[in-house]
Amino acid sequence: MSAWQIWRQRLLRTAAAEPATVTVPAPADGPLLEIDNLQIAYREADGLRTVVHGVSLSVRPGEVVALVGESGSGKSTTSQAAIGLLPDNGQVVGGSIRLLGEDVTQAGEAQWRSLRGRVVSLVPQDPTASLNPVRTIGAQVAEVLQLHGWRDTAAVEQQVVELLRKVGLSRPELRYRQYPHELSGGMKQRVLIAMAVALKPALIIADEPTSALDVTVQRRILDLIDTLRRETGTAVLLVTHDLGVAADRSHRIVVLRQGRVQEAGETLQVLRQPQSSYARQLLADAPALSAPVLRAAEQGDAATATEWAVQVQAVEHHFPVPGQREPFKAVDGVSFQVRRGSTHAIVGESGSGKTTTIRALVGLLRPTAGQIRIAGEDVTALRGEALRQFRRKVQLVYQNPYASLDPRQTVWSIVEEPLRNFAPLPAAERRQRVQATLERVGLAPELQQRRPHALSGGQRQRVAIARALVLQPEVLVLDEAVSALDVTVQAQILRLLETLQQQLQLTYVFVTHDLSVVRQIAHTVSVLQHGKVVEQGTVEQVFLHPRSHYTRELIAAIPGTRSIDFVQSHHHPEETPGLLQPLAG
Amino acid sequence: MNALTHNEGLALRAPAVDPLQATVPPAAVAATAAAAAVAPPRARSWAQGLGLPLQRARQMPLALWLAWGVLAVVLLWAVVPGWFSSHDPLVGLAGQQLREPGAGHWLGTDALGRDVWARVVHGAVHSLSGALVAVGVGLVAGTALGLLAGAVGGRTDEALMRVVDVLLAVPSLLLSLTIIIVLGFGTVNAAIAVGVASVASFARLVRSEVVRVRCSEYVEAAFGSGGRFGAVLWRHVLPNSLTSVVALAALQFGTAILAIATLGFLGYGAPPPTPEWGLLIAEGRNYLSTAWWLTSAPGLVVVAVVLAVNRISVSLSGARP
User: Which residues on chain A are in Cβ contact (under 8 Å) with B32?
Assistant: First the structure.
């Protein structure tokens, strides 16, 4: 029996004997996973490109370690190496990875196969893409067991149903026979977690397990991982870009940037006294963790019609459902008003009707019923050329800066195009206005002739904002405009939007699922659920005195407002105002 | 009606995709299901690393290189035939009928004593220009139809696509023959007939691409920033739809050479004594048992050009981002 097998058996015995011992710090038994000065490079056309430069970290039994970093920081690459799933052009060029004391740095596929599932398992990022659409849930979970030697069909089925129940799926016997498309995103993620914990591994690597999910679902999934961890004593390596999630869910944090460890330590230590400047910046930029001053809305009740930039009254939009007489009401009587020069946030999860609402707002879709007035003009009555002219007043910035820019146009021509669509300006004046707009959004002149693929995500979103601003609109509708960006970039874009609002007296309608961003940027809020407004008011009212159950749930789901179990005991929120402070306390 | 479009797309891309699918290492499949779940996004890199045998990867560019070489030579034949052959393709040499390939006549002579090599070289201009006209007709008309159908949608789309259905239902050679009977015989008319027969497949492909691009956010954004229908179509939809159309055009170029040669062989194309490749083969048919070179030489040239063009077409469609 090899050393690691002995290790493992010892570990599993400990875990089985004391299922709930994990609230005490991990036994000094030695780390489960030990990564030492790891260097990983990718083979590319022009040679090796090193992306991880000497990362060291360790995970002890029963512990949650968060690996935090922006896209391109090497966090995913590091975690893939820890389960032997590096892309084929990736290779470890230095350092070592030890699992249960065994060096697996250069382990072959056969050795990994015996480790994966039993010792270390993975919860992947995208639940929709990670399940086989043509096999039942039961068959896919059972496969994990069968691959590891379970032969008795009845026992396998019983175990799978038990697992599905354990991960909190209602009616597990039914789920067993269902196909992935019959389950929601959150349920699929639960199935994947069931697969990951099926063989009671000592370590689960969760690679952004919730970034594709709605906030409330995200919270429930993270709770589930927490519960399972406590019950089985499994350690978790949580890979995330969200410092708020890391703050909530981990014992220790490792901050990565450009393949190097910037900061590592106890979670609270890192949050309260960050040593590196990068960690400090990351903390300052994380909307969930910084304590923003709520933006007070001007409370004039005698608002005349000219003060409202946007008035939405009882808007409904129905989609016909094939085979049913009743149409699906995507938007069901939504009303709100936005004062000129202020920011109104529309909050809701996927399917709440927020996207349909704003598409009607910018005139891309004619609502079934209701009225929308932008600067006094009724959008729903406009047609043809009048509608085209109206587009100067309201502009939309899309969520995904990768899809909303024509890949064949240069930055310059993207921003110039709206001007060419309208008034025939002389070329010199057009050039000047494009130049001024690009400067305003902070795009360097050398980027002007680039195409979108040669820009970063933040730069692309700046281009999209510039395209919207060049027509000098009165209302800017931002559809999840910062959701796809890294926190630091997100903070920059939010600051830019704030500056632009002050300079140009812009009115924003800001659609998001992220309440922590709302707190930072909005004056007033509407919370949407199932196409209806469930809560409306100033940010202060909604955040401090939420009336509806749903709003309270959304607020509670904001990451960065709680702390992991045993850390709680030394937790004194008053010492660090803003940090980990409960919001609606 | 989308099934056909889809098939065309697949056919174009198939060579690029197949080796990838074939070479995902079994180890990946054997990993635990949870672990294997991350495999799909990496399929490409796996294939590049382990799957494709190195020698095959080296052969591919060589074949492509050869294909371009063949095309370049044939183009030179068409532009400056005098560089390649000193004989007159139309005037027979007395007393030199039906000579076998040899030092004086590389590919022998025909029944009238005309040099076959000279006739093949001089024939290039007819075949290539015919194919060019055919592809041009198909490309322009097909793209216009497809763009209109895909962009306008609704009833226009339905009506146009039903017409395309009818065109696709008739065998293309039969369609070409019908058109040529209406237009009259001749090289240009044969080319137009071949082109019209390919309009349907161009229209289908363009429509599917336009529908894809039309739904993209940047097109909506262009409308949102006040773009007029025509301007958005011209600036965004058309340029972004054309990549795979170019690949189809290259593929059609080979098919058109073949179709024009077929029409020539059947006597519907260029009239004798034009040295068109199809006509050369038809004329040599009577001497098949005694003078094999009369049919084999132009036949092999047609095969080589069509293969070369197909190879180039595959590389074009494979280069799609």
Answer: 116-117, 121, 144, 147-148, 195, 199
